[in-house]
Design a protein that fits this description.
The chain is built from four helices and twelve strands; from the N terminus they run βββββαββββββαβαα. The protein is an alpha+beta fold and 215 residues long. The chain has two domains: 78 residues, Beta Barrel (Elongation Factor Tu (Ef-tu), domain 3), CATH 2.40.30.20; 94 residues, Elongation Factor Tu (Ef-tu), domain 3 (Beta Barrel). The strands form two sheets. It has a six-stranded antiparallel β-barrel with strand order 1-2-5-4-3-6. Strands 7-8-11-10-9-12 form a six-stranded antiparallel β-barrel.
């Protein structure tokens, strides 16, 4: 479980690429302070498992499903990435519930500055629209953000100066991809409603209960 509050920006030092998989070596500092083998670290919002580490870097594998459904496949040596450790049980939620299971990839469609805010328009895959609402939460490249506008094709978020400085989002250009994780609570509610609709209708009626003395 993550919060979407980025702890530091790491730098990709090495990429070992398979046909549909990767092994990433990422230079970092803060996320390595208490790291152990098997720990989870979100890289641009993607939950990855630490397979080895030193005092200055860690490695993680990217499997074919993750390679296909996220933007990690375009990382190269020198790429900057958002990093966040999995949340400790005694931690505080500064963002929102983030699983690190990316739903898909959006594209930056526009950027504009208004006073101290940087507004970004993101084109999102069509099926995601049902999970998005104004003032709702969304996670972009692992960063917990608030949706300020949403229509059938795009959503708009705003970056405060701190987020502009402490994440990679502000430096991304129009046309670049971003990993999207929709609000998990919305997805769970949708699934529960689907399950309820799929349940067969009960033959138990009030008349039946009365007839047999239960009501």
């Amino acid at each position: 479980m993550f919060t979407g509050i980025i702890e530091e920006i790491g730098i990709v030092e090495q990429v070992k690429a398979g046909a549909r998989s990767l092994e990433l070596s990422i230079a970092a500092e803060k996320v390595l302070e208490d790291v152990h083998l098997g720990d989870s670290i979100a890289v641009n919002g993607v939950c990855l498992t630490v397979t080895s580490f030193t005092n200055t870097r860690f490695t993680a594998d990217v499997m074919p499903e993750t390679f296909k459904s996220t933007s990690l496949s375009i990382l190269t040596r020198g790429s900057k990435v958002n990093l966040e450790r999995a949340m400790g049980a005694n931690g505080r939620f500064g963002g929102h519930f983030v699983s690190g299971h990316v739903d898909g990839v959006g594209v930056i469609a526009g950027k504009k500055t208004d006073e101290n805010a940087l507004y970004m328009d993101i084109t999102y895959p069509e099926p995601f629209g049902r999970y998005l609402l104004k003032k709702g939460s969304i996670c972009l490249d692992g960063t917990s953000l608030t949706i300020f506008h949403v229509d059938e094709k795009q959503l708009t978020i705003s970056l405060i100066p701190h987020t502009q400085e402490e994440t990679i989002l502000a430096n991304k250009a129009i046309g670049e991809p971003v990993n999207i994780e929709c609000d998990m609570l919305a997805k769970y509610v949708e699934r529960m409603l689907e399950n309820r609709q799929e349940q067969p209708k009960s033959n138990v009626t009030m008349d039946l209960l009365t007839k047999h003395g239960f009501a």
